[in-house]
Design goal:
CATH architecture of one domain: Alpha-Beta Barrel
Distance between the termini: 88 Å
Strand content: 15-25%
Largest sheet: 8 strands, parallel, barrel
CATH superfamily of one domain: Glycosidases
Shape: elongated
Helix content: 10-25%
């Protein structure tokens, strides 16, 4: 590098003037704490780090070209510790892409994979090139672009809604609107989802959980099965943790990547809907020993991944490699990533895929107090952000009810899913566990709120769900006894075999009206129980109008009519949609379902269970019917809030008695009867409610919800 003298001009403030020249570009040491590439008034600051690498080069490319037009080696004097940082003056961010090359030892048996010829993507890249057109693989190496954030959030406040007040709606950005029947202009994109906001408001949900929207390569495992092109559709193969998936944008956003996503988030917030991102910090798209090396492997393979003593990859993710989450460098990256999405995108929460991996040591063994989980739980920027764990992994760890730092973290309650699925289809031995689940899984999460470091556990820790992207849709849960994943090309060996499903008398599609009637009653049962359970409810997009995946319970590769929502079913099953709408609004109206309120004036217990006889409060393991009562004083309403939900999973009528409201100082009104009244009515608004005496006959396989009112 030759010395470079530059006379001070207003273009280069004296505090950031050039100090040398490399490859014809004026340069100076950069800001070492500013990871990634950051646009400055005078140029761009580039900062990277590598522990075992011996040298680094910055590569500059013209748009779409595979060969760099400039190579800028980082001088040793531009290195502090393991960090290289350089300001390159005069760069126009709209006219170049960038990448790196790192030199160092190549010793695979020691986990060192350095290759001075390998072009590497910046781990902190805010935008990735070559991925902008869905399904079209990039012919170039992964390059990054510098993003200039000029989005104005105005005075938008961060949501202060409690976790237990959420109704979460899980969706896939592309699949939500890609089908021709969606009726939106920008199908399969952030903009298309934005067009559906009025629908989401009508449905009554107040949080969307977006399946992975970080940059991923859907073509990584492209193949053809039965004439269909199969892709990595779900997106659980992260290429870059800081970059939004550019193929989800309806327009090209050169150097403004993320704008369409920010517009979506802003409008969702303006309509009272929070945004939770499904994040994948358990593995990356680089795979195992046979996988590509395009970023993390080339910067510091033994830092970023869990390696066996002989340099191979531990595979607790089931996807080839496992991110070394509790290494200090990786912890820092994950924290910076979540802070970035919270600050720059105003995201309200994160759901962590296979989160138990986040609690493993570098050798894969479980930790009692994982530093990463504590770091995220106590970070000041993330203090109001929801943290949700999928509390298991592919290596056998199952931590539902015991996930570390649970007083800050919520969990997908897998036991709720299993016990309620089983009981609703008639597994009477699930009765006691189902009762615990409806009551908020107090045996797992401590029941009522427990304060810890200013945070509350209990019901805020419990995410109740019966369906999610992984498994049957709610319609398929009652249309198939067995999975039908033949179209995935693995001989129907993939996907879970433990579905606790029931086809109601016919496997798959049928014209038998009795079977169809039973299926939709079972769906209403599931919806009613989910919305009347303590804890945070979550359901899968399309469940509200009977969407089907034709028995495929692992549609990760199906970018077609199997996974795309068929919106024509919304009109066909309009009564089901209206039922879901009623139940979401009913839950929001009756806060006693989601939380413990002050003691009811009428004297009823805050929460109690019953056999068919309300005088018997012990639910037995082999009961086929039981009820749960919630009662409390709602200060906002200025009166008692009382709800009673009763379940009959028997194939015959069951007569139940309702609990007394105080000293007979009130009455019960029927709000929901999933068996219907014979005229297609399944729910009753307040002005339509039917007053019920002490007894009620529940039809076979039905759920009823009663609202209590005092005199």
């Amino acid at each position: 590098m030759k010395s470079y003298t530059h006379k001070y001009t207003p273009e280069y403030p004296i505090s950031v003037r050039p100090m040398g020249e490399i490859a014809g570009f004026p340069v100076r040491p950069g800001s070492f704490e500013m990871n990634g590439a950051t646009a400055l008034p005078v140029g761009v600051n580039f900062t990277i780090h590598t522990h075992d690498g011996t040298s680094a080069e910055l590569l500059l490319f013209h748009k779409g070209e595979d060969e760099p037009y400039a190579v800028l080696p980082f001088p040793e004097e531009y290195k502090i510790g393991d960090v290289y940082s350089m300001v390159v003056f005069g760069l126009d961010i709209e006219k170049f892409e960038y990448a790196y090359r790192i030199d160092g030892p190549y010793q695979p048996e020691k986990g060192l994979l350095f290759d001075k010829n390998k072009i590497l993507l910046d781990p902190y890249a805010r935008a990735v090139t070559g991925q902008g057109v869905w399904g079209c693989p990039s012919e170039n190496h992964y390059h990054a672009r510098v993003v200039k954030d000029v989005f104005d959030w105005g005075e938008m406040r961060q949501s202060d809604r409690e976790m237990s007040d959420l109704i979460i709606y899980e969706l896939h950005v592309r699949g939500f609107t890609k089908h021709e029947s969606s009726g939106v202009e920008h199908k399969g994109t952030f903009a298309g989802l934005r067009e559906k906001i009025p629908y989401l408001k009508q449905l009554g949900i107040n949080a969307v959980e977006l399946m992975p929207i970080f940059e991923f390569d859907e073509t990584m495992s492209v193949r053809e099965v039965d004439g269909k092109r199969l892709l990595d559709y779900w997106g659980y193969n992260t290429v870059s943790f800081f970059a939004p998936n550019s193929s989800y944008a309806s327009t090209t956003e050169y150097n403004r990547e993320g704008t369409e996503l920010k517009e979506l988030i802003r409008d969702l917030h303006n309509n009272g809907i929070e945004v939770i991102l499904d994040v994948v910090f358990n593995h990356t798209a680089e795979g195992n020993e046979q996988g590509p090396s395009f970023s993390f492997k080339g910067f510091d393979n033994k830092v970023y991944y869990m390696l066996t003593p002989d340099g191979n990859y531990y595979n607790f993710s089931g996807c080839g490699n496992t991110l070394n989450c509790n290494h200090p460098i990786v912890r820092q990256m994950i924290l910076e990533c979540l802070r970035y999405w919270t600050i720059s995108y105003r995201v309200d929460g994160f759901r962590f895929d296979l989160a138990s991996i986040l609690g493993r040591r570098e050798d894969g063994s479980p930790m009692n107090n994982p530093p990463l989980l504590e770091l995220l739980a106590n970070d000041p920027v993330l203090s109001n952000v929801k943290l949700i764990a999928e509390a298991w992994d592919a290596g056998g760890m199952y931590q539902v009810g015991s996930f570390p730092a649970s007083c800050r973290w919520a969990e997908w309650n897998g036991r709720y899913r299993d016990s309620i699925r089983g009981f609703l289809k008639g597994d009477c031995w699930e009765c006691e566990t189902a009762a615990w689940s409806i009551c908020g899984s107090g045996d797992l999460y401590g029941g009522f709120y427990q304060e810890h470091n200013g945070r509350y556990a209990g019901y805020n820790s419990c995410i109740n769900f019966l369906t999610c992207h992984d498994g049957f849709t709610l319609y398929d849960l009652y249309a198939y006894n067995e999975k039908h994943n033949e179209g995935n090309g693995w001989g129907n060996t993939d996907g879970s075999n433990d579905n606790r499903s029931w086809n109601c008398g016919a496997e798959g599609e049928t014209d038998d009206q009795a079977v169809l009637d039973l299926r939709f009653r079972m769906i209403r049962n599931a919806c009613a129980v989910l919305m009347c359970s303590r804890g945070t409810p979550m359901f899968l997009a399309g469940d509200e109008f009977g969407n089907t995946q034709y028995g495929n319970n692992n549609a990760y590769c199906q970018d077609n009519e199997i996974s795309w929502l068929d919106w024509s079913l919304l009109e066909k099953n309009r009564d089901l949609f209206e039922f879901f709408c009623f139940m979401t609004h009913y839950r929001q109206e009756h806060t006693v379902i989601s939380r413990k309120l002050p003691d009811a004036v009428c004297g009823m217990m805050a929460m109690h269970t019953h056999e068919t006889d309300a005088d018997k409060e012990t639910v037995l393991n082999n009961d086929r019917a039981f009820g749960v009562c919630f009662a409390g004083y709602d200060r906002k309403k200025g009166g008692d809030d009382i709800v009673y939900v009763a379940l009959n999973t028997y194939w015959e009528d069951v007569t139940i008695t309702l609990p007394k409201i105080g000293s007979n100082r009130g009455f019960w009104y029927l709000s929901v009867n999933t068996a219907g009244d014979g005229r297609g009515r399944y729910f009753y608004r307040k002005e339509e409610e039917v007053r019920i005496n002490h007894e009620f006959v529940m039809r076979p396989r039905s759920v009823a919800v009663f609202t209590g009112r005092t005199l």
